[in-house]
Amino acid sequence: MNGRPNIVLVHGAWADGSCWSGVVERLQAAGHHVTAPQFPMTSTPDDVARLRQVLTLQDGPTIVAGHSYGGQIMTALGTDAPNVVGLVYIAAFGLDQGESLGALLSQGPTPPALEHLFTDKQGFIWQQQDDFVQHFASGVDPVQAKVLHAVQQPIASSAFSEAMGVPAWRSLPSWYLIAAQDEAIPPDAQRMFAGRMGATATEVPAGHLAMVSHPDEAAQLIMSAVEARTAMPTGRARR
Fold first, then answer.
1. 69 three-state secondary structure
2. What strands, in cross-sheet order, belong to the sheet with 155-156?
3. Is the predicted pLDDT of residue 237 greater than 60, yes or no?
4. Structural domains of the chain sorted by starting position, each given as residue range(s) with its CATH number in brackets
5. What is the DSSP code (8-state) at residue 114?
6. DSSP characters for 175-239?
7. Looking at the DSSP assignment, which residues form a beta bridge with residue 137?
8. Can you give the pTM of this predicted structure?
9. HSE on the CB side for 216, CA within 13 Å?
10. Going by C-beta distance under 8 Å and a sequence separation of 6 or more, which residues neighbour residue 56?
11. HSE-up of residue 190 (Cα within 13 Å, Cβ side)
12. What pLDDT digit, counting tens, does each position of 194-228 carry?
């Protein structure tokens, strides 16, 4: 440890840890200790268990950053995350207690990136290539977007009906990168998430995969969180 918190990056649905590659490169170049593990996407409890597993491997205070459904995973840490000192949401879900992804998404028109999802016989949801490239990964080079589609991690449909418990953002400082051109999570929903959690927020003219198309801004926000929490004790910081 160099006195700065570790960084754990949480990917979302239809992605894997490689989606953070550009951010990891920048954080490592700045001397940060970074982990970007793979999540099973079999249920929110399973994904939270993987995050807790990774957190136990960290040698001190840790900033957790999540993208999209990755925000659901880190939010579900609740009040039991003893070495987590801050949360960074990158175009991510920041649900409150009792809310679910499915109920939230049903409140408005289906976002273009989610319009043609399909479910396999095992109950896992996949993205079609055209929607992924044109909408989910809008703003990303199409060649790279097709690679990202090829390595997508499907998500269990049950994850959309699981209600959130006490959210971790109620007791931890938060940062939020709003993707103003997002076609998966409406930008206004992101602004709502950021506002009610009292997050330090910034906006970028990016589609849903903001950490891929705008890795500099994503890495900078994460480093801002690290800087703010350097040499701070673990435990609850607000509310």
1. helix
2. 118-119, 124-126, 155-156
3. no
4. 6-107+153-229 (3.40.50.1820)
5. G
6. EEEEETT-SSS-HHHHHHHHHHTT-EEEEES--S-HHHH-HHHHHHHHHHHHHHHTTPPSS----
7. none
8. 0.94
9. 2
10. none
11. 31
12. 999 999 999 999 999 999 999 999 999 999 999 99
